[in-house]
Each structure stands twice: as structure tokens, then as C-alpha cells.
Amino acid sequence: MPLKGAWSVCSSEQHARLYAPLSLYAHWSLTAAQVRRAYAVDLLVAGGKPAQRSRFICEQRLGLSTMDLSIAAILLQDGITSGAIYALLALALVLVFSVTRVILIPQGEFVSYGALTLAALQTQKLPGTCWLLVVLGVACLVAESARTLRHASSRRRAWRTLPVLAGRFVLLPVAILGVTQALLQHGAALPLAVQVALALLIVAPMGPMVYRLAFEPLAEASTLLLLIVSVGVHFALVGLGLVMFGAEGSRTTAFSDATLTLGSISISGQSLWVLASSVILIAALYVYFDRSLSGKALRATAVNRLGARLVGIGTAQAGRLAFLLAAALGAWCGMLVAPLTTIYYDSGFLMGLKGFVGAIIGGLGSYPIAAAGALLVGLLESYASFWASAYKEVIVFTLIIPVLLWRSLANPALDEGEA
Amino acid sequence: MAHLPDPQEPAQGPKPASRLPNTLSHRNTLMKRQVPGIVLLAVILALLPILPHPLHIPEYWVTLLNYIGLYALVALGLVLLTGIGGMTSFGQAAFVGIGAYATAYLSTQYGVSPWLGLVAGVLLTALLALCLGAVTMRLSGHFLPLGTIAWGLSLYYLFGNLEWLGKYDGINGIPVLNLLGWHLESGRSIYYLIWTFVLLSVVSVQNLLASRPGRAIRALKGGGLMAEAFGVDTGWLRVVIFVYAAVLAALSGFLYAHLQRSVNPTPFGLNHGIEYLFMAVVGGVSQVWGAVLGAALLTVLQDWLQNLLPKLLGETGNFEIIVYGILLVLLLQYARDGVWSYLARWWPARAPAALIPAPALPQRRKPQAGETVLKVERVRKTFGGLVAVNDVSFEVQAGEIIGLIGPNGAGKSTTFNLVSGVLKASGGAVSLCGERIERLNARAIAQRGMGRTFQHVRLLPGMSVLENVALGAHLRGRAGVWRSVLRLNRLEEAQLMAEAARQLERVGLGAYLHEEAGSLALGQQRILEIARALCSDPLLLLLDEPAAGLRYLEKQQLAGLLKQLQGEGMSVLLVEHDMDFVMNLTDRLVVMEFGTKIAEGLPEAVRQDPAVLEAYLGGVDDPVVVEVGETA
């Protein structure tokens, strides 16, 4: 019985599945309100083994019809964990926006790809993403070759540049495919660290390839046009996700089985992994972009592409680097969250959007404020799922409107296209 | 001070005068090419009503045509909102949902007539769109589409979770529509209703766009600041077209509910919202007919893909979105204007409407010679610690041309913006014909009789010269959206157009009425801006560096025009760099440096003023002659 977690995408047929476990509770002759609340808590804390956990929760907590401290603490823990994931996604969004002005709607697809690639590796299957990487690479090579051969000046150097491009765009993906296949045929289960590294190696290069194919030809276009392109890329990647992984969801094994007990609350090792990696990555990105010269150079490309190019910053390289980091961060988030909740091919989208709400609170510019905003979203969602679990998406996404309004009044931009 | 050649000249020179005959012969070839287009149009229009009944095409095609009609209604709203108004919405599907759920709920729960359901759906949608629009239409740039994603998702989850809307199962058993005794039960019969709605909506949008509010709507995208300066309430207009687009979506939802006879949340989700936008982009997002074309292309493509892809991939699923996504990206990279722009070549171009003689518009009482038109008293503007304008005072009398000059960064443009209401003064007073205006916004100041031009020409390049100028008369018309849609505005339109044509004749552009404004040379575009300002029947003309980037001859023509206007009693305040230009033209000069007025008086006197020479030439003893006119 696939039990969907706190980050669920509810299409109608999935929703039917989601409510199925309610029949379990009927055995314990509970009122409807108690069942709903139990289910909400269940959704939040059900870790690797939902049936056991939900039974445990029913027995432990169902006498309680109101919020008490321990439920509050569970919700807090859950809110912080999901908030940390959203914060990482918010970070990637801010990173990409501040370098390329692209609002990266497909960020969520990298999350799904990361999680489902890892899940495929754990079940000894060759993930479809390996093949997608090869296809994207070939498309990039075609696009790059066409550009090289169009201009006489670059055509003369084509015999030197084309092999390099072929190596980067085709040989590398094929090598990754070969290595994955070889490791899987080896038979024995791979160590988790190798699986994670492999999944990152497969998903992260898709970032720059997507940038090359979809966004680089439009790098000078308005933010609005880039946003529509971004939505187009999201459509294509979600559909490809369905082709590669099917409609079934997957879970992966946790990074760590350890639990930390603080008084009456137990904190799972996975939550600690989530928190620690978020804090470290946020700090690292903040230092890189605010303190180092190359980080500042990246930011300069977003403010003024021409100016950046005049002072010798490669704007195309900057964009590809930003997309590489975003895809890697996304895949990493997917792998962090996959042990906590079942991930479907389209689960990443809503997670990415919640990261957005956080990023927008920070005005798509500030890393620490974006992270704080994302944490707020996580907490709001967590408590909303207790009080009004069906409406938590409504609550979270309605929050964005006052935030957007405040943002756009705080720094009114000129009309698009005005001088 | 001799005029030195302008380094920018070659790039901005006017186009050769021989281009008019060229355009005419071009039109003739267009006419020939358009014949198949006219035939095609006639065939389509003749076939549309007889397809389902006398011809009895298969049920499959009727269904497809019904869906094309439903989607076209929503895409049409998006053309108005996104293509023409410049605001992107991913959330239209939610409005379709409100229209569908309103009639579904009322007709199944209370058994009321579906037509009451239609009214309720439209009212509810309009109300919600008004509230959402009032909040989200103020969002700038990319924040707005993100906001539409947010409420698109929220409304979807709301439909799916409300007990009384049947949650994710939706509402079944919606009654059949009954139109004057006709039961529209089959797809064949509701077909007529759907396509009547579509054609009426297309005509309504076309009527709207060809009217006074329509010209203002077309100015929203890229011309917001300019439109405000001619009294257009751009914020309100944004909300109006947002509501209009939402109501079109709700109509589509109403028809959908009675075609399907059941509703559930799935077709009103974000994905469908994105697909609607996609239809508009494919068809041609700034073309009214592009919406219908895009809906047709995408519906057929979707149907084909839904058959093909599962066979190819061996499983069922929503795979067509892959093709959509890739197609959308490619279209935006290679054909941003959509498919319609290719077809439009074979389409009969609308002949420019002939000017109908109409009674002249009423004019304001003009100040008599010697009356003070503009009085600026100790006006001051600070940005943080920087004093950009420091207690500057001057006056403009009726019939005078006053030049406001000074070196770069002297605060001329800031002063100009304080007078025209773009910026709010930190202190001091500005009055126009005795009325204090320093607290008013640009729109209110325009209403009180100030017409202006812009330093960087702000025209709507795709619109005709005549329509651009008619925008200047926005405040002299009354017709709103309703009257324009119903074409009750004909007399007023004729008056506005006649006035615009009169002003164009006055400035000497009478030969270019129906040219595209973007095809004029820079000098002509600047003159066009003056005609547009004149069209607002101003008491005072405010010109922001009108000679910047002009060639010598063009400058002479401009000076001649301004002298002519002065002769007709117009008062002019102009900000300029170019000493030569202002010396022979103006009655008095006000010279600024570092935000302060350093001299005022007759051009000859100002020219000898040591402070002015110091400011411009870096000291009287300095022998180097600096050209001050060419640093635009």
C-alpha cells in the first residue's frame, strides 16, 4: 500500500489511494474527527514503515483530541525537516535566477529524477535517466555543431572544437551509462554512498544541458519569456519522468537508521542529514556569492550581461554552472527526501513551488532570507496538515499572494520592455 | 557656437523619401497573395454552420470542433490579457472551473435553470477576478505569473476538497441545456451554441481593441508610463482586461459543464492553465484569430498524440505534454509570433477605416497672452542625502517658449519629472494656470491640461500613426469597455480620429496617417509625439529633449514647427542640451547646474553670463571649445 507523505501531489486517482488506509482505523472504532487527525499525524511522521508507525500513533496518541506539546513537537520537527528541504530548493532557485534571470520551474523535476534514479539503482534497475542524459547530450552536440558550422570563423577551427564538444556532450554521458550498467551487472548491492554519487553523476549534468538547449539561445530575452520557456521545459521533463519511471512511486533506504532522543521526542537520522546538509550548503553558497570574486562575477552576469562580458566574464559558462549546481542541489534534495516520503514522477513540482514561496519571500535575491522563508513554509504546511490537512496546499499557495504583493510594492520594477 | 556633426547620425537618419511608392506596390502584391486567403475564409465561414447537420460529419469531428470552440474562448481571453496587455496568466483554467462548477452546483442542487447558472458563474468569476486582479495585477514583471500559478493551484485544491462540490469525484447529472425549447442534448446541437459564443467573443474583442479603451489596452505592454501621461488609468485597465479574460474562461466552463454533463477538478488544474497559454502562444499570442487557430492546432495535435504515444511507448499516460513542452520551447526560440503570423500573409489586411467627418471635440479655455501658465516655486527634490533639485523657481507665460538647459546631471530631467508628476517633489509648489499640481500624479496632471513628449521616443510601433496620436486624446473621449464592445461609440471614435488627423496635418505628418508608427524616421517620430501631445488639447506643451539625435535639417524643421505652434498661441517648456537649437527658438532660458538655477533671461543675455560659461565651458579663460549639443 503506497502511503503518500506530507509532500503529496494529489491527482484524483492518487487521492483515492491516499485515503485507503482509513479503513485500518475503522477497526479501532474511532470517531471521524479522531481518524482525520490520526491520519494527519500519520502522514507527517510515517517514516520508513508506515503500517507500523500508523498503528503506533493510533495507540499512542489517539486519545488526544487536541494539540498537546508532544504533537506540537512532532509537527515542529516535521516542519523544520521539510522547511530545510524547501530551503535548499529555494537556494537553487535564487542561484539560478540571480545568474540567468530564469525562474527555474523545472527545479522540481531534478528532485524527482534524483530520488527515482536512486530508487532504481537500489532495486538493481538501470535508471531511464541514463538514457535521457545520452539523448540530451546528442541534442546539445547537434545544436553546438550547427552553431560552429554556421560561422566561417568558427568553421575553420571546427576540426579542433568538434571533438572536444563530442567528448563533453556524448562521450561523458555514454561513459556514465556504461559505468552504471557495469556496476549494476556486478550483482552485489552497491554501498549507499556509491549509489548516491552515481545518481548525482547521472542527474547533475542534465542541468547545463537543459540550459544549453532551452535557455541559452534566449539568454537576452525578458524574464517573462524565460518564465514561459521554463514552464515548457517543466512540461517536457515531467512527461519524460513518467516515461522513465512510470506512475508508481518509490521510496529509498534512509542514509542513517540512528535516532536521537531528546526528552520525549525522537529525531530520525534522516532528518538530521537533511538539516545538516541544508545548513552547510546554505552557508557555503552564501560565502561563495557574497565573499568570493568568482561568485560575485556570476551575480554580475544577471545584473548586466553585456557589462559582465566586457569585463571578461563568460555569461554562457556562468549560466551552465548555475544550472549544474541547481540540478545537483535538486537531485540531492530528492535523495534526502525519498526515505521520508514516497516520491512520484511529478512529486518534485509541488516541492519546488514551495521552495519558490520561500525564495520569493527573500525577493529571489537573498540566500539567508530565502532559507528563512522556506523554513516558514515548511512549518506552516506542517501545522496546516494537522488542523486542516485537506487544505494545506490551499493555505501554502494562498500565502504567496500577499507575499508577492508586498514584494512587488517594496521594489516596483519598470514595465517589461520599457526603456 | 558651430554645429558639429552628430556621431549618431548615420544610424538614425530618416528613411529615403522614395519609400511611399514602394509601400504601395508592396500592397498590390499583397492583394494578389490575399485572394486565396479570402476564398479560404469564405469557405470556412460557409462550412461552419452546415458541418454538423446537413453535411453530417462524423460524431468524432463534431466533438473535436466543440472542444476547439471551448478552448478558443479561453485562449481568446489570454490573447487579450497576455498578448496584448502583456500580463501572463497560467491560472485561466481555474476560472473555467468556477464557471463550470457554478452551473453544475446550482442546476443539480437547486434545480435552477442553467441560464441562471451561467449568470451566477459569470458574476462569481467576475467578482473573484476583480478581487484577485486588484491584488495580483499590481504585481510587476515575473511576480504576476508566479501569482497566477499560486491561485491556480489553490483553486484546484479547493475544488478537490470541498465536500459540497463532490471533492475529487466532482458533480454528475448536470441537466441538458434548453434554448427556447430546443434541447441541446447532442454534441451536434450544442455545437451551434458553442460557436455562436466563440464568434461573438471574437467580434467583441476586436471591437474593443479598435476603440478608445482598446488603444489604451494596446499601450499597456511597453507603454505604461506613456499611457499614464495621457490620462490612462493603466492599473484599472489591467484589472478590466483580467476580468474580461476570466469571464470568457467562465463562459467556456459553463458550456463545458453542459456538454460533458459532469465536472471534476482535473480539467481545471494548473496543467490545463498552462496548456491554454500554450494554445495562445502557438496560434499567435497577439492575434485575436490566433487564439482560435492555436486552439484548433493543439486540440488536433493532442488527439493525435493521445492515440500515437501510448502505442509508441506501450503504456498509457499523459505523454503528450512532452511534445507540448518541447514545441513550446522551440516556438519561443524560432517563431515567437506563432502560426497565425504565417497565415496572416494570405489574409485580407484590414483596410484603414476612412475618416468620417465628425463635429470637432470641445476645447478647453486657453489662457490669454501674458497670463501665467506654469509657475514653479522653490521646488526641491532630494534622493536620500543627494539634493537633485535645489529650490528652483521659474514661470512660463502663455504663448512663450521657455528652454530649461544645463550640462549633464544638472537636474533638468528631474525638474521636468517634478512638473509632469512622474516624481513627487520633496518641497515647493508647482501650479498650472493657478491650480496647485505638485501633489498630483501624472494622470491627474494630464487631465488639467499638460501634454508631454519623452526623451526616448515612446510610441506603439505596431499601431498606425493615426491611432498613436488618437491615444493622446484619450481624456477627451468617454466611451468605456461596454460601449466599445457594442460599437455604440462610433460618433466619438470618428471625432477622436478626426482630431488626431487634424493634429497630424497641423504638424505636417498628414501624408503618413496609416503608416506603422515604427516605420517612421526618428525625426518624424518626435514630431508624432508632439502631435500626440497636441491631441490632448493642452494648455502647456512639455518637451523632453526634442532635438536629441536629430539631424541638422530635422532640427530646423522641429524649430519651425515649434515657432508655428507658438504663433497659434501654444505655451512650451522644453528641456534641451543643444544650445544652438534653443538659442534661436526660445523666448527665455533657465539654466541649471548641480540642481540649482544659475541663470535666467533672454538667450543672448544668458549666453554672456559668466556663470553659464563657467558651467558649460569650464571657465571663461579656458580656450577649448566644447560642443555641448551632442551628448544625448
- Largest sheet descriptor of chain B: 6 strands, mixed
The residue ranges of chain A in which pLDDT falls below 50 over 5 or more consecutive positions are 1-36, 42-65, 413-419
Helix/sheet category of chain B: alpha/beta
The CATH homologous superfamily name of the largest domain in chain B equals P-loop containing nucleotide triphosphate hydrolases
Strand order of the largest sheet of chain A: 1-2
Low-confidence parts of chain B: 1-30, 622-632
When the domains of chain B are counted, the total is 2
Q: Helices and strands of chain A, in N-to-C order?
A: HHHHHHHHHHHHEEHHHHHHH
Query: How much strand of chain A?
Result: under 5%
**Name of the top-level CATH class of the largest domain in chain B:** Alpha Beta
**What does the main sheet of chain A amount to?**
2 strands, antiparallel
Number of extended strands of chain A: 2
Q: Work out the helicity level of chain A.
A: over 70%
What's the short story on this structure?
Chain A has 419 residues and is mainly alpha-helical. Chain A is 73% helix and 2% strand.
Structure description:
The complex is a heterodimer of chains A (419) and B (632). Chain A is mostly helical. Chain A has a domain at 12-61. Chain A is 73% helix and 2% strand. Chain A is built from 19 helices and 2 strands. Chain A has a two-stranded antiparallel sheet. In chain A, a hairpin with a 2-residue loop joins strand 1 and strand 2 (265-268). In chain A, helix 5 packs across helix 14, helix 5 packs antiparallel against helix 18 (367-387) and helix 6 (107-122) packs across helix 16. Chain A is globular, with a radius of gyration of 23 Å. Mean pLDDT of chain A is 77; it is low at 1-36, 42-65 and 413-419. With 632 residues, chain B is α/β, with parallel strands linked by helices. Chain B folds into 2 domains: 60-281, no CATH class; 372-617, 3-Layer(aba) Sandwich (Rossmann fold), CATH 3.40.50.300. Chain B contains 23 helices and 12 strands. Chain B has helices at 9-12, 19-50, 59-84, 92-109, 114-136, 143-161, 187-209, 212-229, 234-260, 270-283, 288-313, 320-334, 340-343, 412-420, 442-447, 465-471, 481-485, 490-507, 522-535, 552-567, 579-583, 603-608, 610-617; strands spanning 177-179, 182-184, 372-383, 386-397, 401-405, 427-432, 435-436, 450-452, 540-544, 571-576, 588-593, 596-601. In chain B, the strands form 3 sheets. Chain B has a 6-stranded mixed beta sheet, with helices on both faces. In chain B, helix 4 runs parallel beside helix 6. At the A-B interface, helix 1, helix 12, helix 17 and helix 19 of A face helix 6, helix 8, helix 10 and helix 12 of B.
